[in-house]
Amino acid sequence: MTGAREIRRTLAEISAAGSTVEYLAVDITDPAATAAALAPYKERVTGLVHGAGVLADQLIANKKASEIERVFAPKLTGLRTVAAALDADRLRHVVLFSSVAGFFGNRGQSDYAMANEVLNAWASSFKKNHPAARVTSLNWGAWDSGMVSPEIKAVFRERGIVLIPVETGARLFTEQFAAGRAADVVTVLGPTTPLSEPERSAATGPVTVERELGALTGHPIVTDHVIGDAPVLPAVAALGWAIGAVERAGGTPVRQVRDFAVHKGIVVDGTQPDRLSLTMTPAGDTVQVAIRSTDDKGAVRPHYGAVAVPGTVPAAATVAGLPALDGGRDAGELYTDGTLFHGPALRGVRRILAEDAARLVLRAELAELRPGDGAFGGSHFAPGTADLLLQAGLVWVKLFEDSASLPLGVASVDLHHPLPDGEPFLIVVEPAGGGDASTSVLTVTACAPDGTVLVRFDGVRVVSAPQLAAKFAGGVSG
Ligand SMILES: NC(=O)c1ccc[n+]([C@@H]2O[C@H](COP(=O)([O-])OP(=O)(O)OC[C@H]3O[C@@H](n4cnc5c(N)ncnc54)[C@H](OP(=O)(O)O)[C@@H]3O)[C@@H](O)[C@H]2O)c1
């Protein structure tokens, strides 16, 4: 067997070079066998090189649990077992063979990628607990050897992947012990390119995803969004979910949304649906999004609608003649006088800088909220700061129409740049034509202090509801 011959040759070469060498074969996924094999050496071992690995490439849908376990075992159980069989405090060198498949991901290797990424995390953690040890997780590119079979080589050749020749790999390995590399806890060796590009096939028919509301109901974005007695899901959370879902399904950032409409808001008072569905229907260059719930009897209720335009990038714009950030008056009372109903986590409108019906300018600042680990936002949109644009619309209606109000929809959302997280920015509210006795239509623009437009909501429709003033004032306090 070639393997056995190679082992014999290597052992002979090491001996010839004047070193003492012993070779033990043991299944490192077997803790008892590994501990027994290493017991006689436990007091002497000062270095660990973990190179065991197994591949079982398969697309996720076709993976079997037993194959995943086979891939995980030598890396995860194996490393734990060997480390436990040695005296960790004696180890001066720990070198782990990880892979760019973990660093970048690779088609068919989700399990192998995860296992290798765990090695990276393990290396960082071990280094933290044993700062004196040299610890390195080597994220190898593909070698022209070992587990890279002739079939895999052919695939890599087709993808234009440059393989690492054995001599080069060996040199890179030894170079890693140089003093200058001592701080490399996780490093990539070989070409720093992914082994495969992510494949995305644009959906041609409707795609529906679902989300349980349970995770949201205790989140400040809901608990600090109380109208009267009941928390209400902010419309921006629905808008953010639409943006994020289209981005994740299609792989293209969403920088423009049209026709966002609130059909029926979600009141989180115990009667809310357990889950919402979000259906994305491709239509030319756009994706129509419908967020709905289904009741016990199977009746479908529309809640929100929007049209995302992935790939459209809004042209750069600026707003001229903005007031200074520190002028005007404090805006705190807006949250207690019946203008705004938002609780502490959403209180981001800070100052009223210019108070003209033709142009209201507010100073805003809010530590971003990311409910659902970011599921309700996208690459250029996060719901906490975005909510401040709608709040600004309500402030305009209160100041110039003397009424409490709620947003109904936004004709066009242009996402130029993400809104700053915990940093000040300005919000400009200007009336646009097309309102009626009870509805105002506004243009709301968030910009940087230098006037660079960050986000623009055109055609924000806000409905006046004087009876809401008492409810707002009775909302979340504190
Ligand atoms: N080759 C590459 O291009 C490449 C790229 C990135 C990372 N890596 C990593 O580098 C390491 C070495 O890869 P390679 O190409 O040399 O692979 P290989 O030729 O397939 O060698 C893998 C080694 O792991 C050993 N092993 C597997 N399961 C074991 C277990 N339960 N107990 C003890 N030993 C076990 C195998 O021993 P037996 O032969 O006795 O089963 C074999 O010696 C792997 O960790 C791999 O993930 C390789």
From TrEMBL:
InterPro entries referenced in this protein's UniProt entry, alphabetically: KR_dom (IPR057326), NAD(P)-bd_dom_sf (IPR036291), PKS_dehydratase_sf (IPR042104), PKS_DH (IPR020807), PKS_DH_C (IPR049551), PKS_DH_N (IPR049552), PKS_KR (IPR013968), PKS_mFAS_DH (IPR049900)
Catalytic residues identified in the record: H225 (proton acceptor), D387 (proton donor)
Keyword match Transferase: yes
UniProt-annotated stretches for the region N-terminal hotdog fold: 186-314
Gene Ontology molecular functions: fatty acid synthase activity
GO biological-process terms attached to the record: fatty acid biosynthetic process
Domain PKS/mFAS DH, residue spans: 186-471
Residues covered by region (C-terminal hotdog fold): 326-471
Name of the molecule in the record: PKS/mFAS DH domain-containing protein
SMART domains: PKS_DH (SM00826), PKS_KR (SM00822)
This protein's record includes keyword Repeat: no
Family matches, as PANTHER family: FATTY ACID SYNTHASE, INACTIVE PHENOLPHTHIOCEROL SYNTHESIS POLYKETIDE SYNTHASE TYPE I PKS1-RELATED
Keyword annotations of the record: Multifunctional enzyme, Transferase
Source superkingdom: Bacteria
UniProt-listed PROSITE patterns: PKS_MFAS_DH (PS52019)
